[in-house]
Design a protein that fits this description.
Helix content is 51%, strand content 0%. It contains 6 helices and no strands. Helix 2 crosses helix 3 and helix 3 packs parallel to helix 6. The longest helix is centred in the C-terminal third of the chain and has 19 residues. The radius of gyration is 19 Å and the shape is flat.
């Protein structure tokens, strides 16, 4: 079947798809190994967005930013109420079930993604305050 040009672009020189750290790859254009330059380029690209909405701030962003900007008044999305059970701690699905060395290797491999996600959350929160 036909392949999307996006997936073809992400194939390495050996035809291996680099599926890790996609947020860094999309924002920086990296196709091979991720470097600190790619992370910095991704952060710069994020700064160019008019609005960055991190997942944990989504409901608040819609109610406090998107609704007023678009004149939405009668939508249930425009009510900034947090349900009582929403922020309860959830059990860690990896606790006592996965090898800690595996988790450490996984976190290290995805460190660039975590760094970009944390930076996006900081930008999102800063934009909400403005």
């Amino acid at each position: 079947g036909a392949k999307s040009p996006f997936w073809i672009d992400l194939q390495g020189s050996k035809g291996v798809y680099h599926g890790d750290n996609l947020n860094v790859r999309w924002l920086s254009g990296a196709q091979g190994k991720i470097s600190s330059d790619h992370i910095n380029a991704a952060k710069c690209r994020l700064q160019l967005f008019d609005l960055v909405i991190a997942d944990k701030l989504y409901d608040h962003a819609v109610a406090k930013v998107m609704c007023p900007l678009n004149g939405w008044k009668d939508s249930s999305y425009c009510v900034d109420e947090i349900p009582k059970g929403e922020h309860r701690s959830k059990p860690d699905p990896l606790e006592n079930k996965t090898d800690p060395l595996f988790i450490g290797a996984w976190v290290e491999r995805l460190r660039p993604s975590f760094e970009i996600y944390d930076y996006a959350r900081i930008l999102s929160w800063k934009q909400m305050k403005e």
